[in-house]
């Protein structure tokens, strides 16, 4: 038996919430050790109120563990610095009773405290160490598997795509002093037009939340005004399926990627297709995202696989011509995101690795090999673009700092070089007659 649920967690230092869809019952109960179905892949999104915050402060490393692990139970044991407690995760005994093997005996302050008969000193907490987050609320979905999620930017709720259609889950904050108190309830009447439309592989709200777009496995594209659900665009296509879609920041255009054929650009005001973005030989389009540059102009990024390489293609949003492309990875790209300030791009691969690139030259800024034990399923930047949130097939979520380390003051090597240079100058001045 398999049941699923929607979990909500608070993020430390903010009132932001994380929404994780994970299996509530493990395959291991029945002795089935095969990988879970694709439906069990966790999806993640953040509430709209937090997207407008510019004071987001996240620790450099924050690891959010799903409440139930169906697979990959054994995670690597993380090292700890001297005097610091072990961070949450799979825990091994830090010491052994006296008389055990030498590598498991108490040493250091613990051993001295034991000999003196004093209470063992409490380990102090490391700065930036992660902590287990309390679950705010859990909404069971029984046997309905949530495949995709989209959070309304203005806080109208969370749209979940199930195999037979879509459902809207609204949240309410009860009165009280607890800022993380939250109650979820399913709204059966909000999405009547999407109740029995089948599986939707792509769901998204526009930046202001006034438009909703969905793309089905059956190739049917639907675009509605929100919350009235008046139809703006409807395009059936039984020969393809919708892979991804993206709104421009000004809500003028919608780009749709399908499993075959070119990407299509729709004008949301006239409800007509204005451009088709052709593929080169051997290219298979994947994800599409708009990005706003410093001069408020927009650029479109599209990921593609060509042979054994994953690449990112940039397009001009005025002439809809290809500006450039660059091969960025040898693994298949499974997730893609653009930072809110438009300066960074992030890709996740099927091998669990994460890469952050500059949007101008597409040079790699940061790479985290094997950041997850499974396929990276979702990527999202914080509002200030200083942190990258990722989720994976292994039911984990991770926050990675995207800031490059900066040095405060003069570095040690610069000081050493200056001292050596001073000694050479002094030696030359004292013995210049001999030269």
From TrEMBL:
Pfam families, per the entry: WD40
Keyword Acetylation assigned: no
SMART domains for the chain: WD40
InterPro entries in the record: Sec12-like (IPR045260), WD40/YVTN_repeat-like_dom_sf (IPR015943), WD40_repeat_dom_sf (IPR036322), WD40_rpt (IPR001680)
UniProt biased composition (Basic residues): 103-127
Keywords recorded for this protein, A-Z: Endoplasmic reticulum, ER-Golgi transport, Membrane, Protein transport, Repeat, Transmembrane, Transmembrane helix, Transport, WD repeat
GO molecular function (one): guanyl-nucleotide exchange factor activity
Any one GO biological process: endoplasmic reticulum to Golgi vesicle-mediated transport
Region (Disordered): 28-51, 82-129
A cellular component annotation (GO) from this entry: endoplasmic reticulum membrane
Bilayer topology: Single-pass membrane protein
Subcellular location: Endoplasmic reticulum membrane
Coiled-coil intervals: none
Residues in the signal sequence: none
Residue stretches spanning the membrane: 410-429
PANTHER family listed in its UniProt record: PROLACTIN REGULATORY ELEMENT BINDING PROTEIN, PROLACTIN REGULATORY ELEMENT-BINDING PROTEIN
Protein name as annotated: Uncharacterized protein
Organism annotation: Aegilops tauschii subsp. strangulata
